[in-house]
Amino acid sequence: MSFCGVKPSAIKQHLTKLSGGDLCRALAVAGLVLYAVCILVSNPSGQSTAFFNSLIFRRQGRYLYTNTDINDLVFGIASSASTWRTRRQYIEGWWQPNVTRGYVFFDVPPPKEYLPWSPFSPPYRVSENISRFKDFNKHAMPFAVRMVRVIKETFLEVPRGVKWYVMADDDTVLFIDNLVEILSKYDHNEYYYIGCNSEAVGSNADHSFRMAFGGAGYALSYPLAKALARNLDDCIKRYPNLYGSDLILQSCISDLGVSLTLEPGFHQIDLHGDISGFLSAHPQTPIISLHHLDYTNPLYPAMNVFQSLKLFMNVSRVDSSRLLQQSICYQKKNNWTFSISWGYSALIYENIFPPSNLERPLQTFVPWRNVYKPPAFMFNTRWVTKNPCETPHFFFLDSVEQKPGGYEIVTNYGRKWDRRLPACSSTGNHSADWISQIRVISPAKRYVGGEGKRRECCDISRIYGGSNITEIRLRSCMEDEIIIV
């Protein structure tokens, strides 16, 4: 006789080694596990999956394992009545009415022109009057006190049923599905302060290399947010000379014994000008946020800031997991290298470059404050040159579509300008000038990248000479596959 295939003698042999409380706990866990196994064996349908997704083990009132989803997050957005006219377009680009939870906090009530309040924006709140802090200290940036207290005011608005509190500025664009995926890696019962520092060395030097920049956004686990809410006002009074809400917050979190957990998908974008080089060599991790888009060129050429952002968000809704993820493949016949930044750009080099080279962004941008000696950035870059063997042909996203049947996604990238350079003579004078479009076909299933994962491989499947189109297929890399030819 057996119970779901498990012999009682085997269970008895293990249980006799335990006693007292350990035996009780073992019996309880064993019972739950055996029950779950029986459910799965007897009902291999989607109902079993739903059962496992809802199964929660508790120990002393804490979760041992749960799935994080969008309902577990609450957002606190620092804004002002004077910036809302333009900044609301950033927020409404990612906010999901009746799905996302949170508030935008103003310094004063919004003008009547914004009333009745748009259902496509987060509900608003007016921050508490901070004049009482003037009796205790003289902060260099008084408005920073209001901004740092957004975390406390957000917690007080929603003090229960939350795993993560996410703070951001009103010109921050968030990619919610990727954010949920990243936060799912961490135990929300512990004290976590998750974000990233600036891309510019100077910005970090001015503030802290151990600080999450608030424009990029950051996430606080429930117990940390709770501890901050209790102690924040006293902490603000302890640090009257700190410049900026981000640094005040980091100091208060450090006082609680917590350090920054870095996630490189948060992007402060302390860069000016053309950031296409940076986005075309995105770190191998899901993109979580973009900030400071007012100070960069539009994401896509021949569009304004909000037109290009709309296209970028549309492609993210089709597949945010692949957005900006880099794939590299080669066409040996012509000595060409293709670098795909999914949903954004496709580059052709008339030369063979190893992935270690192409992971370094082309420096098409300048740092936030161009007054520091090199190194200016927190990552290695490649210089932009006029050498035809090193300068790529740039193609940018035109469209995205799901193929009939829903198994594949097609993204199309068009040439926006001529390279205006001769062919690379050292590799055979195989010019790519005649190619006008690159079509990339990818699997529809969500791509799981990040730590411990490989980037997707790709193959040049066809080159249509008559229509000037190159077709590339993304796929999982084979075991031990070496990418470079």
Tell me what you see in this structure.
This protein is an alpha+beta fold. 27% of the residues lie in helices and 21% in strands. The chain has 13 helices and 21 strands. Strands 13-14-15-17-18-19-21-20 form an 8-stranded mixed sheet, with helices on one face. Strands 5-4-3-6-9-8-10 form a 7-stranded mixed sheet. Helix 9 crosses helix 10 (245-255). The N and C termini lie far apart (59 Å). Residues 1-6, 14-24, 36-42 and 44-65 have low confidence and may be disordered.
Provide tags for this entry.
485 residues, alpha+beta, 8-stranded mixed β-sheet, 7-stranded mixed β-sheet, 21 strands, 27% helix
Number of strands: 21
Q: Return residue spans where pLDDT drops below 50 for at least 5 consecutive residues.
A: 1-6, 14-24, 36-42, 44-65
Largest sheet: 8 strands, mixed
Mean pLDDT figure: 88
Instruction: Please state the overall shape, judged from the principal axes of the Cα atoms.
Output: elongated
